[in-house]
# Entry
Amino acid sequence: MTLQKILVTGGAGFIGSNFVHNWLNRYPDNLIVVLDLLTYAGNLKNLEGLETNPNFQFVKGDICNYDLVYDLLQQFDIDCIVHFAAESHVDRSITGPDAFITTNIIGTHTLLKAARKRWIEDKKGIEHRFHHISTDEVYGSLGPDEPGFSEKTPYSPNSPYSASKASSDHLVRAYHHTYGLDVTTTNCSNNYGPYQFPEKLIPLMTLNCLRGKLLPVYGDGLNIRDWLHVKDHCQGIELVIRKGVPGQTYNIGCQCEKTNMEIVNAICSTIDKLFVKNPELAHSYPDCPAGKGSSCKELITFVTDRPGHDRRYGINCARIEKELGFKCSHNLSSGIEETVLWYIKNETWWKPLC
Ligand SMILES: NC(=O)c1ccc[n+]([C@@H]2O[C@H](COP(=O)([O-])OP(=O)(O)OC[C@H]3O[C@@H](n4cnc5c(N)ncnc54)[C@H](O)[C@@H]3O)[C@@H](O)[C@H]2O)c1
# Structure
């Protein structure tokens, strides 16, 4: 597909901003319009450097605002929506589910309605694509020996977050089947990399290590997640937008299942080694145990488990590999080191957030 004018919702968030940088590097002549409400998770600093790019526009606004969304589709003659905007943190969905229902369900439906009006009614026949970003959490939890989630795994969401995402996935599918909207959906596993808000596992543990704060590990620490570098994820999304079959869903993952303890230990060992290699770090981070001849592992503490905590996620990504040629290029240990280094070098980015 040769889509060139793209509305990215949630483009000031973690994955959305990585996607925007990646897309404009690869297709500098394309237009990207970011629509983002700048909730606690959105950050204009994630888009730094793009302010002067004539092919980039930022609009602060809510995906639930139909008139605004429709106006943007019209004003910029948008032919593709890449939909990242969401409430995305499971713990927050347990303490306050309402925002998840509003943004993830009503917001997605508002975008679909505006896209239908613009692309199916007003500009009938125009090449277009609505690409929806979803999660592996819609499939529920796997037993220890079960095969990874495929696109045919029945939905079984367990948290208000995953239930709201499942709902949005069904709406996207329904707009294809009922109205002929050209849609694709990707369901991905846990992402990590630069610009991730410090409440998620990898940045939280990294920043707590650097500041000598406890590392709170839920339950027995043996919940398993399948880790995907955000840049590999963005590459997968691009393949689906360019070559994916309308109406189809694709799982994206890197076959990298790890327990939370393995991730926390890997972060601790990485930071311990970096401090040995670069003793100057002890001056910048005087409370980090690694700078005092000890190990960050001494900060690990087990805390009461999250209610309804899914035990294991694992992704079978054979479809996107076979049909679209997707291949991961990051491995977890170098990816974690690169991510830890990014947080070390970007204190001015994270300090105001925690
Ligand atoms: N991070 C992960 O590991 C992961 C894994 C699987 C799927 N996903 C999905 O990927 C997408 C992006 O995740 P993320 O981690 O980048 O999220 P994020 O929380 O970092 O960013 C979400 C962005 O959406 C914006 N937003 C929230 N409500 C909005 C609204 N009503 N209108 C406009 N903008 C709004 C926020 O300001 C923020 O910039 C989400 O749909 C999420 O469900 C994320």
Remarks:
- The two ends are 41 Å apart (CA to CA).
- The mean pLDDT is 97.
- Residues 194 and 343 are 7 Å apart (CA to CA).
